[in-house]
Amino acid sequence: MRILVLFAVSLLAQFATSLAAQAGDVAELEILGFTGDGGVFAFEEYGVQDGSGFPYANRYYIDTTDDSFLKGTPIKVRLDDENATLDAARLAARQKGEAIVSQAELAANRGITAGFNPVTELSADPFRMVVNPRPIFSPIDDALEFRLDEIGMDNTESCQSQGDINGFRLLRIEAKDGGKTELLHQDKSIPKSRGCPIGYRIGAVQTFSLQGLSAYAVLIAVRQFGFEGPDYRWIAVTGRL
Asked: What InterPro entries does the record point to (predicted)?
Protein backbone atom coordinates (compact mmCIF):
# COMPACT_ATOMS: atom_id res chain seq x y z
CA MET A 1 0.00 0.00 0.00
CA ARG A 2 2.80 2.39 0.91
CA ILE A 3 4.44 1.74 -2.49
CA LEU A 4 1.18 2.60 -4.28
CA VAL A 5 0.87 5.85 -2.32
CA LEU A 6 4.46 6.83 -3.13
CA PHE A 7 3.85 6.00 -6.79
CA ALA A 8 0.73 8.19 -6.86
CA VAL A 9 2.57 11.07 -5.20
CA SER A 10 5.35 10.71 -7.77
CA LEU A 11 2.85 10.86 -10.64
CA LEU A 12 1.21 13.97 -9.17
CA ALA A 13 4.59 15.63 -8.80
CA GLN A 14 5.46 14.84 -12.42
CA PHE A 15 2.08 16.21 -13.55
CA ALA A 16 2.58 19.42 -11.58
CA THR A 17 6.09 19.79 -13.00
CA SER A 18 4.71 19.31 -16.50
CA LEU A 19 2.11 22.03 -15.93
CA ALA A 20 4.70 24.39 -14.50
CA ALA A 21 6.96 23.76 -17.48
CA GLN A 22 4.19 24.94 -19.78
CA ALA A 23 3.25 28.00 -17.73
CA GLY A 24 4.07 31.30 -19.37
CA ASP A 25 4.28 34.77 -17.89
CA VAL A 26 0.96 36.60 -18.02
CA ALA A 27 1.48 40.23 -17.04
CA GLU A 28 -1.13 41.74 -14.73
CA LEU A 29 -2.80 44.88 -16.06
CA GLU A 30 -3.34 47.95 -13.87
CA ILE A 31 -5.17 50.87 -15.49
CA LEU A 32 -3.74 53.98 -13.84
CA GLY A 33 -5.94 56.64 -15.42
CA PHE A 34 -5.80 59.91 -17.34
CA THR A 35 -4.56 63.41 -16.70
CA GLY A 36 -7.24 65.91 -15.73
CA ASP A 37 -7.73 67.10 -19.30
CA GLY A 38 -7.73 63.59 -20.76
CA GLY A 39 -4.57 64.38 -22.69
CA VAL A 40 -2.51 61.50 -21.25
CA PHE A 41 -3.46 57.90 -20.53
CA ALA A 42 -1.32 55.66 -18.31
CA PHE A 43 -1.27 51.98 -17.45
CA GLU A 44 1.03 49.49 -15.75
CA GLU A 45 1.85 45.86 -16.45
CA TYR A 46 3.71 43.78 -13.91
CA GLY A 47 4.63 40.22 -13.03
CA VAL A 48 7.44 37.71 -12.56
CA GLN A 49 9.44 36.85 -15.66
CA ASP A 50 9.28 33.20 -16.65
CA GLY A 51 12.63 31.49 -16.79
CA SER A 52 14.57 34.01 -14.67
CA GLY A 53 12.03 34.51 -11.88
CA PHE A 54 12.85 38.24 -11.82
CA PRO A 55 10.02 40.66 -10.90
CA TYR A 56 9.24 43.46 -13.35
CA ALA A 57 6.93 46.47 -13.63
CA ASN A 58 6.43 48.58 -16.74
CA ARG A 59 4.53 51.88 -16.94
CA TYR A 60 3.27 53.44 -20.15
CA TYR A 61 2.27 57.10 -20.55
CA ILE A 62 0.54 57.89 -23.85
CA ASP A 63 -0.48 61.20 -25.42
CA THR A 64 -4.10 60.58 -26.45
CA THR A 65 -3.98 63.27 -29.16
CA ASP A 66 -1.49 61.46 -31.39
CA ASP A 67 -1.16 58.07 -29.62
CA SER A 68 2.54 58.56 -28.86
CA PHE A 69 4.63 57.89 -25.77
CA LEU A 70 5.54 60.83 -23.57
CA LYS A 71 9.21 61.74 -23.47
CA GLY A 72 11.11 59.54 -21.03
CA THR A 73 8.62 56.69 -21.25
CA PRO A 74 7.85 53.80 -21.18
CA ILE A 75 9.31 53.20 -17.74
CA LYS A 76 10.60 49.64 -17.43
CA VAL A 77 11.91 48.15 -14.20
CA ARG A 78 13.24 44.62 -13.73
CA LEU A 79 14.99 43.59 -10.53
CA ASP A 80 17.56 40.97 -11.50
CA ASP A 81 17.41 39.20 -8.16
CA GLU A 82 15.32 36.10 -7.47
CA ASN A 83 14.86 37.30 -3.88
CA ALA A 84 13.52 40.71 -4.95
CA THR A 85 9.80 41.24 -4.50
CA LEU A 86 7.20 42.28 -7.03
CA ASP A 87 6.15 45.09 -4.68
CA ALA A 88 9.69 46.48 -4.81
CA ALA A 89 9.67 46.49 -8.63
CA ARG A 90 6.27 48.22 -8.72
CA LEU A 91 7.36 50.83 -6.19
CA ALA A 92 10.47 51.64 -8.21
CA ALA A 93 8.39 52.08 -11.37
CA ARG A 94 5.86 54.22 -9.54
CA GLN A 95 8.55 56.50 -8.12
CA LYS A 96 10.01 57.05 -11.60
CA GLY A 97 6.53 57.69 -12.95
CA GLU A 98 5.90 60.51 -10.48
CA ALA A 99 8.25 62.66 -12.55
CA ILE A 100 5.98 62.14 -15.58
CA VAL A 101 2.46 62.37 -14.12
CA SER A 102 1.62 62.20 -10.43
CA GLN A 103 -0.12 59.09 -9.18
CA ALA A 104 -2.64 61.31 -7.41
CA GLU A 105 -3.73 62.97 -10.66
CA LEU A 106 -4.13 59.64 -12.42
CA ALA A 107 -6.11 58.17 -9.52
CA ALA A 108 -8.43 61.19 -9.50
CA ASN A 109 -9.12 60.75 -13.22
CA ARG A 110 -9.16 57.00 -13.67
CA GLY A 111 -12.06 57.04 -16.10
CA ILE A 112 -14.49 54.19 -16.72
CA THR A 113 -13.59 50.60 -17.57
CA ALA A 114 -16.39 50.22 -20.10
CA GLY A 115 -15.34 46.74 -21.20
CA PHE A 116 -12.93 44.09 -19.92
CA ASN A 117 -11.98 40.61 -21.16
CA PRO A 118 -9.05 38.97 -19.33
CA VAL A 119 -6.84 36.54 -21.25
CA THR A 120 -8.51 33.70 -19.35
CA GLU A 121 -11.93 34.55 -20.83
CA LEU A 122 -12.84 31.83 -23.32
CA SER A 123 -16.40 32.76 -24.26
CA ALA A 124 -15.87 36.36 -25.40
CA ASP A 125 -14.88 37.49 -28.89
CA PRO A 126 -11.17 38.39 -28.66
CA PHE A 127 -11.33 40.49 -31.82
CA ARG A 128 -14.40 42.66 -31.18
CA MET A 129 -15.66 44.75 -28.28
CA VAL A 130 -18.74 46.97 -28.22
CA VAL A 131 -19.40 49.11 -25.15
CA ASN A 132 -21.68 51.75 -23.74
CA PRO A 133 -18.91 54.26 -22.94
CA ARG A 134 -20.48 55.51 -19.71
CA PRO A 135 -22.70 53.82 -17.09
CA ILE A 136 -25.74 55.93 -17.96
CA PHE A 137 -29.03 54.16 -18.65
CA SER A 138 -30.77 54.65 -20.94
CA PRO A 139 -27.52 55.41 -22.81
CA ILE A 140 -27.01 58.96 -24.01
CA ASP A 141 -23.81 58.15 -25.93
CA ASP A 142 -23.31 56.26 -29.15
CA ALA A 143 -21.84 52.81 -28.60
CA LEU A 144 -18.10 52.45 -29.09
CA GLU A 145 -17.16 49.46 -31.23
CA PHE A 146 -13.62 48.26 -31.89
CA ARG A 147 -12.47 45.42 -34.12
CA LEU A 148 -9.04 43.87 -34.31
CA ASP A 149 -7.50 41.93 -37.21
CA GLU A 150 -4.24 40.03 -37.08
CA ILE A 151 -1.80 40.64 -39.95
CA GLY A 152 0.74 37.99 -40.91
CA MET A 153 4.29 39.35 -40.76
CA ASP A 154 6.48 36.30 -41.08
CA ASN A 155 9.14 38.37 -42.83
CA THR A 156 10.15 39.94 -39.51
CA GLU A 157 13.91 39.39 -39.60
CA SER A 158 14.54 38.78 -35.89
CA CYS A 159 11.64 36.30 -35.65
CA GLN A 160 12.20 34.11 -38.69
CA SER A 161 12.86 31.00 -36.62
CA GLN A 162 9.78 31.49 -34.42
CA GLY A 163 6.99 30.37 -36.77
CA ASP A 164 3.94 32.49 -37.57
CA ILE A 165 4.42 36.11 -36.46
CA ASN A 166 1.58 38.63 -36.49
CA GLY A 167 1.02 42.36 -36.39
CA PHE A 168 -2.44 43.87 -36.00
CA ARG A 169 -4.94 46.35 -37.35
CA LEU A 170 -7.44 48.13 -35.07
CA LEU A 171 -10.66 49.67 -36.40
CA ARG A 172 -13.33 51.80 -34.81
CA ILE A 173 -16.84 51.31 -36.18
CA GLU A 174 -19.17 54.31 -35.97
CA ALA A 175 -22.60 53.51 -34.56
CA LYS A 176 -24.06 56.15 -36.88
CA ASP A 177 -23.22 57.21 -40.43
CA GLY A 178 -23.98 53.74 -41.74
CA GLY A 179 -21.28 52.02 -39.73
CA LYS A 180 -18.39 54.15 -41.00
CA THR A 181 -15.01 52.55 -40.34
CA GLU A 182 -12.05 54.49 -38.92
CA LEU A 183 -8.56 52.99 -39.03
CA LEU A 184 -6.93 53.61 -35.65
CA HIS A 185 -3.75 51.59 -36.08
CA GLN A 186 -2.13 49.29 -38.61
CA ASP A 187 1.29 47.71 -38.23
CA LYS A 188 3.69 48.11 -41.10
CA SER A 189 6.40 46.34 -39.16
CA ILE A 190 6.84 44.79 -35.71
CA PRO A 191 8.56 47.13 -33.22
CA LYS A 192 11.47 45.51 -31.40
CA SER A 193 9.83 46.27 -28.06
CA ARG A 194 7.03 43.83 -28.94
CA GLY A 195 9.36 40.86 -29.42
CA CYS A 196 7.95 38.11 -31.62
CA PRO A 197 4.15 38.35 -31.23
CA ILE A 198 2.02 35.43 -32.32
CA GLY A 199 -1.43 36.77 -31.45
CA TYR A 200 -3.56 39.58 -30.04
CA ARG A 201 -6.87 40.11 -28.29
CA ILE A 202 -8.83 43.16 -27.15
CA GLY A 203 -8.59 43.13 -23.38
CA ALA A 204 -10.27 46.34 -22.22
CA VAL A 205 -11.74 49.68 -23.20
CA GLN A 206 -11.21 52.64 -20.85
CA THR A 207 -13.10 55.91 -21.40
CA PHE A 208 -12.70 59.41 -19.97
CA SER A 209 -15.24 62.24 -19.76
CA LEU A 210 -15.18 65.96 -19.07
CA GLN A 211 -18.38 67.67 -20.18
CA GLY A 212 -18.92 64.73 -22.50
CA LEU A 213 -16.84 61.82 -23.73
CA SER A 214 -13.29 63.10 -24.18
CA ALA A 215 -10.82 60.24 -24.67
CA TYR A 216 -10.50 56.47 -24.82
CA ALA A 217 -7.89 53.74 -24.62
CA VAL A 218 -8.14 50.25 -26.10
CA LEU A 219 -5.95 47.81 -24.16
CA ILE A 220 -4.65 44.93 -26.26
CA ALA A 221 -3.10 41.74 -24.90
CA VAL A 222 -0.11 40.59 -26.95
CA ARG A 223 0.74 36.88 -26.98
CA GLN A 224 4.46 36.23 -27.43
CA PHE A 225 6.85 33.30 -27.41
CA GLY A 226 8.09 32.84 -23.85
CA PHE A 227 10.70 30.73 -22.13
CA GLU A 228 8.29 28.31 -20.43
CA GLY A 229 5.17 28.91 -22.50
CA PRO A 230 3.32 31.78 -24.16
CA ASP A 231 3.79 35.16 -22.48
CA TYR A 232 1.23 37.97 -22.46
CA ARG A 233 2.09 41.67 -22.43
CA TRP A 234 -0.06 44.77 -22.86
CA ILE A 235 -0.15 47.65 -25.32
CA ALA A 236 -2.72 50.44 -25.79
CA VAL A 237 -4.17 52.41 -28.68
CA THR A 238 -5.57 55.77 -27.57
CA GLY A 239 -7.64 58.54 -29.12
CA ARG A 240 -9.81 61.61 -28.52
CA LEU A 241 -13.56 61.86 -29.07
From this structure: DUF2259_secreted
